[in-house]
Structures are given as C-alpha cells and as structure tokens.
Prior knowledge:
Blueprint: E1 10-21, E2 24-36, E3 41-45, H1 52-59, E4 68-76, E5 79-80, H2 86-92, E6 97-100, H3 104-107, H4 114-126, H5 130-143, H6 149-153, H7 162-174, E7 180-184, H8 192-209, E8 212-217, H9 220-226, E9 229-234, E10 237-243, H10 244-249, H11 254-261, H12 302-306, E11 312-315, E12 318-320, H13 327-331
Helix pairs in contact: 4-5, 5-7, 7-8
Amino acid sequence: MSLDMDAPLLSVENLKTxxxxxxxxxxxVDGVSFQMSRGEILxxxxxxxxxxxxxxxxxxxxxxxxxxxxxxxxxFRGTNLLEVSKxxxxxxxxxxxxxxxxxxxxxxxxxxxxxxxxxxxLILHQGFSRSRAAARGRELLEMVGIPHPEKxxxxxxxxxxxxxxxxxxxxxxxxxxxxxxxADEPTTSLDVTIQAQILELIKEMNGRLGTAVLLITHDLxxxxxxxxxxxxxxxxxxxxxxxxxxxxxxxxxxxxxxxxGAVPHMQANQExxxxxxxxxxxxxxxxxxxxxFYARCDYADERCQKETPALSELETGxxxxxxxxxxxxxxx
Length: 332
C-alpha cells in the first residue's frame, strides 16, 4: 500500500482507544479528530490521565490489541494506518513517524550502547552500512548538542545525564528525518534550564527539517512558547481547539478557563489568586452520557448532565465542546 504524497500529511478521524477491563470499559481516547500539516507544531494539553499519551501511542499503533480496541481512521498521506499490516507499520515507524517518549531511562535499552541504538534505525530504515550508520550516528549526537560525540556514542544510557539521554532520544527520533515527530512530555523530570534547551532543539529541528511536531504536555507555558495550534483534552475528548494565540486570548471552554487561571503570572499583583478547578477528573471507566466536566463546572445545567456536547465551531477555526461557552468570562 503506497502513500499518497498529495494527501494531507496526517488526518485523524474519530479515533477511539478503549480498554476492556474487569471493572468495565475504559475510554482512554474517545472520538478524537484533528489534522496536521507539514512543518507545523501542534500542541496537545491537559491534565495527567486525560488520554494524551494513549492518543500518541495509538497513532503509531503501539497499543496492544486486544485487550485494547482501536477504531476510527489515522490517515497518513491518505493511508489508514489502522488497516496496514504489522510489517508495513514497522516500516512507517521511525522512517515516516517517530516518537520521543516521556522517560528516556526506560525507553533506551540498558544493554546496548546509545550509538548502536541510533545506528540500528539507520540500517533498518535507510539501508546504511554499519560504518556509514556509525558515522551518521556520531553526526546526529553532535547535531543535538551532545559534547564529545565520539565518546558518548560508545557509552550506555546509565552513563549519561537525564538531559543527555533525552537528547539521544531526539537523535534517534530524527535519525531518518521523519515527516512527523510525536513528542510526549519530552521535558518531564528535567530541570528548567535543560527543559528550555530540549524544547529549543525540537523547534530548531522542526525549522531545519520541516518535520511536523505533535507536542504533548500539561505545561501551558510550553504551549504558549512553542506551538502554533493547540488542542485542549479532557477525559479522552478534545474540548477546545484553535490557534495558540486565540486560545490564550479568548478561551471559551470552562476547563480551558480553569487551566489558564491556574497558571501564575509574573505581572500579577500580590492580591491575585490562582484559580482552583474544584473536584478531580472523572474515572474513564464506565463514563456515561453527559459532559465529562459537568461535576467540576460552574456553568453546568441539567442539559450538561444528560447530553454530550459536540465539538462546534463558534468562530472560524475555533472549536469548543460546550453548551454554555463563557466568552464574556474569557474576555475579562
């Protein structure tokens, strides 16, 4: 099955990832739809447990089925990745779509040198000889800012700092110059200085290679500084999506408003208080009809409890899943 190079780069349509557990059906990703264009950085933001990572793993079919059930469409250049063979999917991973995982400590193989792990992708996907792959691997380590690449190439993951391990992950992900990079919380557990360096590196690679990036995070500061569009995710659903500038200037969904209000601002006066979103996210097991944010929302009514709102376009390019979008509140 060939790829249609004239089709949109990535088009996700009504993606659902359900897990059938003893306690009931868990809807980790529940009807997510979005598109990505070449060279853009798209943000996905939400609290822990809202389905962001499961969505990314689903795009690469890294979710084991069964016990999980995947449905919908993941169209990469017109080809539905949910319908291709496992062998074809292995060729797409790394070569066309790569991923930076949350924790490089568990993602890197502890018994192989980092150089071998990088070179294997080049041998498998690019047909490089071992010597050529080794040379390119050292170039990649230098490209991502690792000092003494010749030395680091021969070392193991445990011999590197957290920031260096994450850079190795980025080098591996970019080794075959993929068209799409899925960055799942790429700065988790790193100190602030290293976080900024890693994010700048991803942005630089995006600009240099034209790689589209799906940047998954819970940090609104990261979203504001590095993305062009953003999807706000809650309980497995997109509840609001628009350009990053629009989301920060005119958030409409009560959940988005709550996230914005919970972020401290340098310019805030001493009397300013952070907003607390009351309650906790709902269990995704056996989640029924109605708005999942109902119990935590200050604007919910009887309809919100009984009906599930659709994702509706309130203005050009700005979609919100809410019966009572609070535009006046957002503008204040």
